[in-house]
Design brief:
17% strand; 7-stranded parallel beta sheet; alpha/beta; 254 residues; 7 strands; 43% helix; 10 helices; globular; Rossmann fold
């Protein structure tokens, strides 16, 4: 007597069908990977980025609309959203902003330290004030930041720059309601941007090996992991004002 096992795939509707997703900083890394997943889930995707050539290549890959500008340029941000047809459903802010100041704070100019704390906040505020009026109720504005919380002499202002984002996210969620606002806080993510922090490939691979050996998940976090979380936060309309750490358990072993 034999028993036949039949496996059937369960079909489901795309989660973002007929929705518009704007990815600020969508030509590479976390932004591009989120755009890919959103596209697979049926979204109409709009990409922005600083590098016109790289942005054009990403837009062709995804059959997406695109606009090249610097997310730190307030006039460029306003112009982009003024020209973008409504409605918008979700906005992910994955644009690279200048790295926070590392090293002892007393050795850095005060203005530079202040910019290190406030740069991400001012960037997000400019995007939020122009995007929100065109966003559907229940849509999501997603911020990205770092999960680095260790304080030491060499960290400088970086932990403070990251730690300001969760309460900022919560306050912005109240101001923008019923548009939702959430924060994705990443540890090391294996992207070209992360690689740029290492002077050579040997140092980067050593870091990867260290994380594989020590992280509870036994592997390095990649941009697809953050993309999956971003799409979940777009589709789960009960979540707002929240901050999510996604670091493979790095904080548990620090």
């Amino acid at each position: 007597m034999t028993t036949a096992t039949t496996s059937a795939s369960v079909e489901r509707d795309p989660q973002l069908l007929d929705q518009t997703v704007v990815v600020i900083g969508g030509s590479a890394g976390i932004g591009l990977e989120t755009a890919r997943l959103a596209r697979r889930e049926g979204a109409d995707v709009v990409l922005t980025g600083r590098n016109p050539e790289r942005l054009e290549q990403a837009a062709r890959e995804l059959s997406a609309r695109s606009s090249a500008f610097d997310a730190d340029d307030a006039a460029g941000v306003k112009r982009f959203f003024d020209e973008l047809p409504a409605p918008i459903d979700h906005v992910l802010i994955a644009a690279y902003t200048r790295r926070p100041t590392y090293g002892p704070m007393l050795e850095s100019p005060s203005a530079e330290v202040g910019q290190g704390v406030g740069r991400r906040v001012t960037q997000v505020l400019e995007i939020a004030r122009h995007a929100a009026p065109k966003m559907r109720p229940g849509g999501a504005l997603l911020l990205t930041g770092g999960s680095v919380k260790k304080v030491d002499r060499e960290s400088g202002i970086s932990p403070a720059a990251f730690s300001v984002l969760p309460p900022f996210t919560a306050a912005l969620a109240l101001e923008l309601a019923p548009v939702r606002v959430n924060l994705i806080q990443a540890g090391f993510v294996d992207t070209a941007l992360a690689a740029s922090y290492f002077p050579d490939e040997g140092g980067l691979e050593a870091r990867r090996e260290e994380l594989r050996a020590t992280l509870p998940i036994g592997r390095v976090v990649g941009p697809a992991d953050l993309a999956a979380l971003a799409v979940h936060l777009m589709t789960n309309t009960a979540i707002t004002g929240a901050a999510y750490d996604i670091d493979g358990g790095q904080q548990l072993i620090a």
